[in-house]
Fold each of these.
Amino acid sequence: MDILIASNRQLPIRYYVDKAIWIRRGGCSINPQMTLPFFVEIEIKNSLNLQIIIDYIFEFQRQYKQTELQILIKDAHILTKINELLTYNIPHQHTITIQQL
């Protein structure tokens, strides 16, 4: 698990086999830092494909007027890139907290 995303809304499952990204329901590795009820684990084999994760988040947010997300990221490089890609594009009614695992 490279990224853990928790939300106040049910998160969709996605598999991008050709891009080596798997977004699946979280299992027994729930992190105690997560305070929101719904979560997915993301496994990334190639950090060059991070735009897919950003698109996943934006697609999810477009479905609701308001969302809250907590994102925990294992790798510092991925954390930096996700922060850069998300920082300027989040609508005001959506809240995102990003931290390193």
Amino acid sequence: MPNRRMRAAAVGLAAVAAILSVPASAASLPDDSGWLIRMMTCSAEGLPIEVYLPQPVVFSDHGMSAGQTVGGYYTLDLSSINKGKGLEPVRVTMSADKKFITVNQYTRGLPPTRIPVGGGTVEFDHRFAQHAKCGPFQAQDPNFGN
């Protein structure tokens, strides 16, 4: 019986050693569907806010379709007040006329925020993100960066 336990322990130790010895370069990268791109930046009282969407949606032939809802991420960078910067899942919806996007922070039960595609001042979180000044929703602005 002791030989059996020792063999099992040796096999287990060898498996752990093999897993730990795999170089980091052997780790696979996520496929393109897992990549995100920043689509909108805002600032509220000097605190940066960003909205990220999946690249396949952003770089499709038509961008976001009218009425389309996409899962993305929202960040409110509270690093300057020692609270960090987290990623919060959100649902982003393009309006039927493609003039507004709606950011729904559904995990926190906040009311959805409607933002003009060209940018504007909006209300996000009432504790830290009131009167947020947002730039244009980049994928929808054909002149962005020109």
Amino acid sequence: MPNMPVISAMRLRMQIVLVLMLCFPGMAAATPPCRGNTLANAKIVVEARVKSLSIGESGLLLPRDFPKRMIRVDLEIKRVIKGAFTDKEAILYGVPYPPPERMFELSIMALTTGMGGHDTFEWELSANKINSDVSFFSLNNCNYSKFPDELDFLQQRRP
């Protein structure tokens, strides 16, 4: 894609965005909206950019009836808005059944990374503990999030 003119690359990305819009029209309706999803309740909030987003087999040894596919989002941290977090990157994991409430917006952010000044968003880093030493940042929690105003038309209005 490096030899592709900029306008063609942008056109390709917009076509991908349109395909995603057709593939995920009712995703927000499939999961109940989070209540109390506010900045005041969040412990750690960062401004970040999506470096990569993938959905694939987890490789975990799980029961036969448990979904084995997982979502992975790699974030590049631009700044910490609330709380203490010293790393410059974070990895979020989630299961696609049901899909995370903000999956569509994360997909758009992954596609628009590097396309200008509107490719960062605010996200709460919410850790799920496996035991006293092991935890991971989850996509499936009711995380605080704030996406660029340019994505307002994509977000479903909730009462």
